[in-house]
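Incident log, support desk, overnight shift.

02:14 A customer reports that sequence design results differ from what the structure should imply. Their input is reproduced verbatim below. On-call engineer (initials T.W.) acknowledged and began investigating.
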């Protein structure tokens, strides 16, 4: 049995849950990885989360619009991987300068740090969306009439 949500509410629930779990996983790692104060890394995590939440909402709306125009509505692993890669590249273009400024490091260092974080989130995004679809069902953009 899955919980059914209307598209707009589904996007909001998906984005919020994604960020809640991500923040719980990432905040302690940033504290340890960057050897900054817990308050600073928590503030950075929350700032990056706010950026990611906004980007997530916009990206998923665009992705689902593209997905609705595809002949097949199946969310294959290939499509999920494309979703994860596209999301992480787009988000990286925004967060690398923010991380560089916040941590007072160069763009190259921020990019390398973001690549490590991005690799984690690539897998996390694929697994999260798969689990989310199992609980809430696939989005309407993937449903096709029978016959």
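02:41 Re-run completed on a clean worker. Output:
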């Amino acid at each position: 049995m899955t919980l059914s949500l209307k598209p707009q509410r589904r996007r909001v629930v998906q984005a919020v849950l994604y960020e809640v779990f991500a923040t719980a996983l990432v905040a302690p790692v940033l504290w340890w990885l960057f050897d900054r104060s817990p308050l600073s890394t928590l503030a950075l995590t929350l700032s990056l989360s706010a950026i990611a939440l906004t980007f997530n909402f916009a990206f998923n709306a665009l992705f689902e619009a593209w997905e609705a125009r595809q002949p097949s509505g199946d969310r294959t692993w290939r499509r999920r991987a494309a979703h994860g890669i596209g999301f992480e590249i787009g988000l990286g273009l925004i967060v690398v300068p923010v991380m560089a400024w916040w941590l007072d490091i160069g763009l190259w260092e921020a990019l390398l740090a973001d690549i490590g974080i991005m690799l984690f989130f690539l897998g996390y995004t694929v697994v999260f969306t798969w689990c989310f679809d199992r609980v809430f069902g696939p989005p309407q953009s993937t449903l096709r009439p029978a016959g």
